[in-house]
Amino acid sequence: MTLEEIKEKIESGIENSTVIMEGDGCSCSTKVVSPIFEGMSLLARQKMVLAIMNKEIVNGTLHALSIKTCTPKEDI
Description:
The chain is an alpha+beta fold. It is 37% helix and 26% strand. Strands 1-2-3 form a 3-stranded mixed beta sheet, covered by helices on one side. The mean pLDDT is 93.
């Protein structure tokens, strides 16, 4: 799975999001910025991203995904 494919999948699953990817296709990190995260805990935000990528993690296509999330106001 390419970084672009991961980025597109997360962006399609989280409305109004901007996704920045780093790493390689099987072990990577992502920064997801979206106003939908307003008022959510960090754990709830990460669970939202992980739920989108769950199939790929379970079947081994994606081995590791480090996740940072923030709202546009928090993205300084």
